[in-house]
Design goal:
Radius of gyration: 15 Å
Number of helices: 2
Strand content: under 5%
Shape: extended
Order of helices and strands: HH
Helix content: 55-70%
Structural class: mainly alpha
């Protein structure tokens, strides 16, 4: 039986880099509806990661 791999959540910095890369690839034009949804998904992931990191620092 092979081990089950659990994906570790990405940190806010890593997600921020992904957002910047995503947007820089699309510089100079409006996002399509699908791209806008992907951007919003990434942004929500970034907000969640930032909150989690702040919570852990306070703890």
């Amino acid at each position: 039986m092979s081990p089950v791999r659990v994906r570790q959540p990405r940190g806010a910095e890593e997600i921020n880099r992904a957002i910047r890369a995503f947007l820089s690839e699309r510089r100079g034009r409006a996002l399509t509806a699908a791209e806008r949804r992907e951007y919003e998904r990434l942004r929500a992931e970034w907000v969640t990661a930032g909150r989690a990191e702040r919570w852990w620092r306070k703890g």
